[in-house]
Amino acid sequence: MAVYTDVSAEELAVFLGAYDLGGLLSFKGIAEGVENSNFLIETERGRFILTLYEKRVRGDDLPFFLGLMGHLADRGINCPLPVKAHDGKALRSLCGRPAAIVTFLEGVSYRRPTPTQCAALGDVLARLHEAGKGFHLSRENALSVAGWRPLVEKAGTDADRVAPGLGQAVARELADLEGHWPRNLPAGVIHADLFPNNTLFVGDTLSGVIDFYFACNDALAYDLAICLNAWCFEADFSFNLTKGRAMIEAYRAKRPLNGAEIAALPILCRGAALRFLLTRLVDWLNVPPGALVRPLDPLEYWKKLRFHQNVEDASAYGLVA
Amino acid sequence: MAVYTDVSAEELAVFLGAYDLGGLLSFKGIAEGVENSNFLIETERGRFILTLYEKRVRGDDLPFFLGLMGHLADRGINCPLPVKAHDGKALRSLCGRPAAIVTFLEGVSYRRPTPTQCAALGDVLARLHEAGKGFHLSRENALSVAGWRPLVEKAGTDADRVAPGLGQAVARELADLEGHWPRNLPAGVIHADLFPNNTLFVGDTLSGVIDFYFACNDALAYDLAICLNAWCFEADFSFNLTKGRAMIEAYRAKRPLNGAEIAALPILCRGAALRFLLTRLVDWLNVPPGALVRPLDPLEYWKKLRFHQNVEDASAYGLVA
Question: Cα–Cα distance between B264 and B98 in angstroms, integer?
Fold first, then answer.
């Protein structure tokens, strides 16, 4: 949530010379995105987002992310469309960092989405999964079940500094998920981080899906599980069945869930909760002293995890049999 | 250069209900301004800047700043125009902070302005001084000569930690300026912080003057001295006479300088250099450990000060006799 690289108007004007975007009318560093530097720029051709990719994004992954956005935008998903320069390339370099320009999307991100907005999310998620078919690149999910044990080891015994008993709870859940994680569900390209702050709405219309920098190939229903975690709990961590039903039913209207996916939904939700619990835990334990950015609370996802551990089947999320 | 207060779309939508601005289409926290939280918002009526005033701006001063922007905008200065709510008030409250919406201005800030851009600055500065006449509020300059001794005392013996000899150089300069500071120059409303990053350009056209949060009443020529310091030195701290001449002559074309102002220009430039040297020095000595924002280098202004100490008269800045 900061601008890490300072770009001058003079440098940006030179950079824009490689594009067919006309003269520069304004640019502002914006507080957005996961550890990248983002600028809202306006040229004679309209508004765009310029991103400079900082250390946390691997350069090798950028063709996947940018190519995916182009693939999805071409298939009717409202996502940022990478802008190609005169030489046909969307991925360039600015101030020593990989950099790309994408189209600007209107809309605002809600903190507390309504059931109507949860339905809009279910609809776009299913359409995104369908539209992802045929994308020619693939990217392994580094934060799926095989990636969780290294995070548990990184947190180590410090987990109990965050909350007594957390270390043991995480270790036990991980062992159980490793033993029972579903392996043969329908798979494809997933967003993998489709939280409310990565969607834009104008009123109740979902006007944009953004921030594809965790996108990867994995079970499609796991993406739905991530969204159920991110969108359907209230501030007191009770699960809102109305929101869950709205999301799942809108999803199924565009992409039916098969029996294996429905049966797996509770364990996928547990996995999704553990995944965000673990990355938040590691971030929490590694805050530099004096940092301005407060990390997200890992315990929110422990509470969500405990809800999923007591779920018997997908009806608990609102799925209509 | 950060967003200090997190505003949700839900809170902003409620806030906008007090205005006649239509529905909210987008908003982004922007990395801009001196320790305030700024958002670029777009509504059905256009684009605006929303500012939440954080601790460093005194609430009592806000009617002066907002009133001044309205006064200047009404008189043809391209500056942000505070937007009044249904009840006629521009100063409101959001997330527990004083807050105001002003119009958005196009343009970008250059780091290294050209002589043509320096002339554009001189022109708008003189017009701003003329337009400020008749503004019904006034505000003392807390950072004029009487405000410098407290800063010297705050830095204390630590100044030499930044550079050997700095403490003594600052003390000697302050004593000299206190003894010889000109008292009867034409005075009025000054911007007092009109650095290149507080101006917007579209090409060579100065499209906006922003950030009035140091504006106050003081000698008009002191404002010109601040701009000569901020605009006319090269990266190696040599003074660019071409830029100085362009700025001064464009200024004089709109507001003639009298003999006392011309004679005082060297000492006003020394004062302006000491003022920014001192505030940067105090900030430099008080950086919290681990802070993300690197303070501006006070030594730049020591170098500029030494240039001014060797100036014999205003011709050294390019003034044509």
Answer: 39
Q: Partners of B36 in the beta sheet?
A: none
Half-sphere exposure of B89 (CA within 13 A, CB side): 10
Comparing alpha-carbon positions, the chain B residue that sits nearest to A201 is: B25
Give ∠ CA A31-A35-A37 in degrees, rounded to 5: 55
Which superfamily does B115-317 belong to? Aminoglycoside phosphotransferase (APH), C-terminal lobe (3.90.1200.10)
What's the gap in Å between the CA of A236 and the closest CA on chain B?
18
Tell me the C-alpha distance between A85 and A14, whole Å.
Answer: 13
Task: Identify all chain B residues contacting A3, using CB atoms and an 8 Å cutoff.
Answer: 1, 31
- Closest-CA distance of chain B to residue A49, Å: 11
Q: What is the pLDDT of residues A135-189, one digit of tens each?
A: 999 999 999 999 999 999 999 889 999 999 999 999 999 999 999 999 999 999 9
Find all residues with CB under 8 Å of B30, minimum gap 6, and list them.
A28, A29, A30, A31, A40, B3, B38, B39, B40, B49
Chain A residues within 8 A (CB-CB) of chain B? 1-3, 8-10, 12, 23-32, 40, 42, 106-112, 200, 202-203, 288-293
Q: How many CB atoms lie within 10 A of CB B151?
A: 18
The answer for residues whose C-beta is within 8 angstroms of residue A82's C-beta and 6 or more apart is A66, A69, A70, A90, A91, A100, A101, A102
- The token pair that represents A16 in the structure block: 């824009």
**Which residues are CB-neighbours of A321 under 8 A, at least 6 positions away?**
A315
Q: Residue B275's CB: how many other CB atoms inside 10 A?
A: 24
ipTM of this complex prediction, to 2 decimal places: 0.83
Q: Are B113 and B71 a contacting pair, CB within 8 Å?
A: no
Q: What is the pLDDT of residues A191-241, one digit of tens each?
A: 999 999 999 999 999 999 999 999 999 999 999 999 999 999 999 999 999
CA–CA separation, B159 vs B152, rounded Å? 9
Taking contacts as CB-CB distances below 8 angstroms, the residues of chain B near A292 are 2, 291-292
What single DSSP character describes residue B67?
Answer: H
The one-character DSSP state at A195 is -
Task: Work out the minimum CA distance from B200 to partner chain A, whole angstroms.
Answer: 8
Please give the full DSSP string across B80-111, using - where no structure is assigned: --BPP-TTS-S-EEETTEEEEEEE---BB--S
Residue A208: CB partners within 8 Å, gap ≥ 6? A78, A79, A80, A105, A106, A107, A199, A200
Q: Do A202 and B9 touch (CB under 8 A)?
A: no
DSSP lists the bridge partners of residue B157 as none
- Assess contact for B105 and B160: CB atoms under 8 A: no
How many other β-carbons are positioned within 10 Å of the β-carbon of residue B156?
A: 10
CA distance A103 to B170: 51
Query: Do residues A200 and A108 touch, judged by C-beta distance below 8 A?
Result: yes
pLDDT tens-place string over residues A78-99: 999 999 999 999 999 999 999 9
CATH class of this structure's domain A9-103:
alpha beta
Determine the distance from the C-alpha atom of residue B104 to the mean position of all C-alpha atoms in its chain, rounded to a whole number: 18
Amino acid B305: pLDDT: 97
Q: Could you state, in order of their start, the residue ranges of all structural domains in chain A?
A: 9-103, 115-317
Taking an 8 Å cut-off on Cβ atoms, the answer to whether A10 and B106 are in contact is no
3-state secondary structure of B62: helix
pTM, two decimals, is 0.88
Report angle CA A60, A64, A70 to the nearest 5 degrees: 140
Q: Which residues in B162-280 belong to E strands, given as ranges? A: 187-190, 199-202, 205-209, 216-219
